[in-house]
């Protein structure tokens, strides 16, 4: 089985993920151990944190050197918290899509409570501007744990990315239950680690999540959401 991770927080000292180069190197060791060769680094960004852009690039390039020595390809992107300035910042390249592509990893606040039609409008506006939105971890938004609401978002043109850890028991029960509903109805397009390099959100848990999803939902679907769709996003062709 091949994996590609499009959502991770392994760049050190830039957000609430890895706190040090040592933690980032430990994550790389876990990545190598499970046989993954391609990972997108997606530090958190909203418009008030643009001062960290240079630091992100510097630390990414440093980590990329270590990764290359281990046979791991790192790519840069952002996990973008929705704001009214989001599209302007994307258009001016202050924020970037996954591997500088048009694929945009979008998140909302966990307790967001805007009307679902407003979220649909956000997705539609991104699409109209030529972007390809990917909604990060819909199973974690407490006010949108409703299949019909998520279908509206998907019908508007968004891809859905769940966290591998969301199917494990340490995850909040409501989120775990909803993640399984999304998988059962095959609404999930991508499974990612969303690793924060801590005791639970890491590549060991990612691998456990993969095994559970493969066992419950089949190898073919798992291949699509863990590898084929992420490969298409990054433009990686099967060798």
Describe the 3D structure.
The protein is of the alpha/beta class. The chain is 42% helix and 14% strand. The protein has eight helices and nine strands. Strands 3-5-6-7-8-9 form a six-stranded parallel β-sheet. A three-stranded parallel β-sheet has the order 1-2-4. Strand 5, helix 3 and strand 6 (103-107) form a beta-alpha-beta unit. Helix 7 crosses helix 8 (219-234). The chain is globular. The two termini are 14 Å apart. The relative contact order is 0.16. The model has no long low-confidence stretch (mean pLDDT 95).
Order of helices and strands: EHEEHEEHEHEHEHEHH
Tell me the number of strands: 9
- Biggest sheet details: 6 strands, parallel
Based on the coordinates given, report the CATH architecture: Alpha-Beta Barrel
Structural class: alpha/beta
Biggest β-sheet: strands ordered side by side in the sheet: 3-5-6-7-8-9
Tally of individual domains: 1
Q: CATH homologous superfamily?
A: Metal-dependent hydrolases
- How much of the polypeptide forms β-strand, as a percent range? 5-15%
The radius of gyration computed from the alpha-carbon positions, rounded to a whole number of angstroms, is 17 Å
**What is the terminal separation in angstroms?**
14 Å
Q: According to CATH, what is the class?
A: Alpha Beta
Ranges where pLDDT stays below 50 over 5 or more residues in a row are: none
- Helix share of residues? 40-55%
List the helices and strands and how they pair.
Layout: E1 4-5, H1 21-33, E2 38-41, E3 44-45, H2 53-69, E4 73-76, E5 79-81, H3 86-91, E6 103-107, H4 116-128, E7 132-136, H5 147-155, E8 159-163, H6 173-184, E9 190-192, H7 203-217, H8 219-234
Parallel strand pairs: 1-2, 2-4, 3-5, 5-6, 6-7, 7-8, 8-9
Helix pairs in contact: 7-8
